[in-house]
Amino acid sequence: MLLGNEAIARGAVEAGVAFASTYPGTPSSEISLNLFQMSKESDLYFEYSTNEKVALEVAAGAANSGLRTFCMMKHVGLNVAADPLMTLAYVGVTGGMVILSADDPSMFSSQNEQDNRYYAKFGNLPMLEPSSVPEAKDMIQYAFDLSEQLNQPVLFRTTTRINHSNTYVTFGDIKERKTRGRFIREPGRCVTVPAVSRQLHVKVLEKMDKAKEISETSPLNTVEGSGRLGIITNGVSYYYARDAVKDLGLEARILRIGFSNPLPEQKIKDFLAGCDKVLIIEEGEPFMEEAVKAFAQEEGIMITISGKSKALFSRLYEYDPAMVREKTAAFFNIPYTPTTKIDTTNIPPIPMRPPNLCSGCSHRATFYEVQQAAKGMDIICPNDIGCYTLGFLPPLSTGDFVICMGSSVSTSCGFSKATDQKVISFIGDSTFFHSGITGLVNAVFNNHNFTLVILENGITAMTGHQPHPAADMEQFGFSGYGRVNIEALVRAIGVQHVSVIKPFKVRKSIDTIKEALSFKGVSVVISQEPCMLYAKSIKILNARPFRVTDKCKDHKDCINSIACPSFYIEDGRVKIDADTCVGCALCAQICPENAITPIKK
Amino acid sequence: METTRLIIVAVGGQGNLLASKVLGEAALISGVPVRMSEIHGMAQRGGVVESAIVFGDAESSIISDNEADILLGFEPAETLRAINRANKNTIVITNTAMPPPFTVAIGKGVYPPIDTIKTLLQEKCKSLVAIDAMKIAREAGTPMSVNIVLLGALVQSGRLGFTKETMMEAIKRRTKKDFLPMNIKAFEMGFEAAKASKG
Predict the structure, then answer these.
(1) pLDDT, tens digit, for every residue of B96-108?
(2) Does the beta carbon of A354 lie under 8 angstroms from any beta carbon of chain B?
(3) Is A321's CB within 8 Å of B63's CB?
């Protein structure tokens, strides 16, 4: 029984992958976590790179030294890596290279639901899409072989329901790894000056012609069933379609596309020629639908071909089996009665469980202190991507603008020039390395005026505790890593006002922040405190819970200003849950009566 | 083979992902095809965790609204919130002990009375087994075994077709050795409590 991401990692190892790089991002994170662990016990090379662009360039070097190379990221990560991606497609590779993009329809943990299949078309990359967990494992092997056949990187596109599904998987043999390569100088291919690139563009189109021939006969593009009703589908929708056909007792033919760029043009045209009506079932954008309609037009095939429309499928969110069953029945005029819904009109409102920063999370303290220090000021708080994005929720209510990794710093530049408001932005340490540094350099050079708070908790917390360049790798139990000092880096960039706070020292932190806010120009406050969850997991933090004593006069300042999840109310009085309180002492410092004290053992 | 669709809802930290793994193992032992899907947006940060487990011939790995055959809730308000996943033929098993949502804990939301929750589940679905899995887990030796207590109640329903022995073997394979005696006890006690709850 393997998680999709574990199966993908296993598939890569079976395929003889020798070199892997990533920047973690849900829903792809467990792939890299597994490869990281394997790399510690084998000669597989794996690294957490500082961002996806770096990861792809690192991988490009390895793949051009002849090694089988795997580079994985979440869908928006491919935007960051798009620059090397587009030209690496011209240059190609000498060892097999697979780039995995984990798309997230319905945005379970993402800021948008872009459909990355377009990158394959845009960049001239062959693309594969699995429909199930076991297939994902085996398809990785195919992807490496294909990449070597074409000397071209292959895009491997998954969706959350592949990454985060579990099923039985049968292990295959592990192919021997070639871990040392050699770069052979080939300036006519590898140095993309205009004269070279003009030739390379010709070559990449030739490669894609060859890829199309392979796609035409690829075992990944399959036709099953019988009759003159047709369904063209991909990814997880394929199984929803199969279940729908079975449940509805429909006589239909299904063309499943697993090799989706270039599409198997002739195969699709032949399929259309045998159909009276065709339904296209694909989550996301009408990527296949537009192509299929164009193929039909070329052949003069005048049948109804539908997919995305008001009556049928949406471009929004992920699909589900009942939806596919219902739309399939509607399109092919099959009688179908959906399961009767439960009447929920008399269900009382159920209180929500909004995600909250953990008990003892240092971000809570930092947000509180900034709000205290900025009292009375008209402020804008650009925030960034990580656990601390949750700061926007009440009562902390800190976080006004978030678009992508690193945007807190650069948008601050714009806000501070365009308004008279005081700009205070927040970024985590991993995100700062990912893409905050260039924004800060820009701020120093252009002499902007804002305060950046860097939340240094020593780890990439949100995605499951991956290391980053300022992490203490010795503490992880790994040697042979360097370590970047954030304070020294910020000073070296030329920031004139740099201060460091320990956020659980409340009064001192507020004073330090006040001083930073009053500085005209770029000021940086570095808030240093290890991620509580991580500190607990490696046992450098022993919980020392607090309690509310009789001195409490019931102002509820603690709950109203910091809302730590360890608080609860019993008989109208605030209590602290000793099982979850870790003893950060933030509330104890806020309480006007000093009523919150450590529990004596 | 008939398809059985099970939805498990829980709050982060209640161990429903481990419960899913045990069920997957039981399916493997029984030779039943199984596919599972998890959604755990911000589980570590107090959010809701949902697992969908499809046993049998259907090939999809997720379950649409109104199509769960069994709804297993680790927390009563979450069970009620998930009622749109059920239909009038669904059997419902729920824990009655609640880690209240934070909004309620700090007095900023109202938790529906447990009897109201039970009545609503009972009247809208086919059957209801409601047990205090937290209390039973503590009696078995550790509050951590709430998930295993509820697996006992689930197997008692008979709807999955797994025997007690199969489940015990699955628990043995999938949970930590140190906890095994407590887990077996928790499983047995959950099984018996479910039986008693039906009268």
Answers:
(1) 998 777 788 777 7
(2) yes
(3) yes
